[in-house]
Write a structure and sequence with these properties.
Blueprint: E1 10-14, H1 20-29, E2 35-39, H2 51-69, E3 73-76, H3 79-92, E4 98-99, H4 105-111, E5 116-121, H5 123-127, H6 129-138, E6 143-148, H7 152-162, H8 167-174, E7 180-181, E8 184-185, E9 188-191, H9 200-206, E10 212-214, H10 217-228, E11 240-244, H11 251-259, E12 262-264
Parallel strand pairs: 1-2, 1-3, 2-11, 3-4, 5-6, 5-9, 9-10, 11-12
Antiparallel strand pairs: 7-8
Helix pairs in contact: 1-10, 2-3
The chain binds D-glutamic acid (DGL).
């Protein structure tokens, strides 16, 4: 007899294509599970949203997503959404298992030699109390510079869709991360937005000096793996589906998600 639970998907969520950087890692450690990808592209970019309005949107949207997909597990592959609303989502949907994505401040603090660490994120993530608390808790002995980027998530979307990005524009966004102080230099930049790993080679190329770029996608995939081990044996059937809240992603985006193993579902 088929175990109905076995075909319940793992739902990956982001405001756009950023969550695909987590999917890429998850496919390696969780290849058998059915996935659903949801991009709230109608509301992209999240970085600019006022907190209360975004929190309300997320709680309402997840109510619909949970009712529709009955996900076995939800991976919020978005720092801007997780740092704002993970606690609200857990409180609103207590029966549901969530994996959040938060800035890798702890590993950065453990790894830095110079003591100068920068966190590159959306303006929303930089403003969050959650982010400040992580710094207070894990990086009190470091000098942490928070850099809120207005444009990088959009540049990453453009790069992934068109294969081209203005390198000078990337450089302009990352330069504030590079600090020199009393003969020491920033040696770690935390990529605290799931869109940014897609631009890391351009960042390396345009950086004023070499640094270690830390992102959380592998750690998130491993956390999902740990939770998925408690689920029934998966049964993946056919292609996974991607949903865009705009209902109308451009063809380049459909091609892109196709490369990650998703077919775009026409209705949101
Ligand atoms: N990918 C998202 C994150 O991890 C946010 C991008 C945006 O919507 O501004 O923060």
């Amino acid at each position: 007899m088929v175990n109905a639970q076995a075909s319940l998907p793992i739902l990956f969520f982001d405001s756009g294509i950023g969550g695909l950087s987590v999917v890429k890692e998850a496919r390696i450690v969780l290849p058998e599970h059915p996935y659903v990808y949801v991009a709230d592209d109608a509301a992209f970019p999240y970085g600019d949203w006022e907190e209360e309005a975004l929190r309300a949107r997320l709680v309402e949207l997840f109510g619909r997503l949970i009712a529709r997909f009955e996900p076995a597990l939800i991976v919020i592959a978005c720092n801007t959404a997780s740092t704002l609303a993970i606690a609200d989502l857990r409180a609103a949907y207590p029966g549901q298992s969530f994996v959040g994505t938060v800035p890798a401040i702890k590993p950065a603090a453990e790894r830095t030699r110079s003591g100068l660490v920068s966190v590159l994120a959306t303006p929303g993530t930089v403003r969050r109390q959650y982010t400040r608390d992580l710094i207070g808790q894990y990086a009190a002995s470091c000098h942490v510079r928070l850099v809120g980027s207005e444009n990088l998530a959009r540049l990453a979307e453009q790069y992934m869709r068109e294969g081209f990005v203005d390198e000078a524009a990337v450089r302009q966004e990352i330069v504030p991360c590079f600090v020199e102080q009393e003969g020491r230099r920033t040696d770690i930049v935390v990529l605290a937005c799931t869109h940014y790993p897609f631009l890391v080679n351009r960042m390396r190329k345009t950086a004023p000096w070499p640094v270690d770029w830390i992102d959380t996608s592998e750690a998130i995939a491993r956390r999902a793996l740990a939770l998925a081990q408690e689920l029934p044996q998966p049964q993946r059937q056919g292609l996974d589906l991607a949903f865009f809240t705009s209902g109308n992603p451009p063809p380049a985006l459909s091609r892109l998600v196709g490369g990650f193993g998703f077919a775009v579902a026409r209705e949101p």
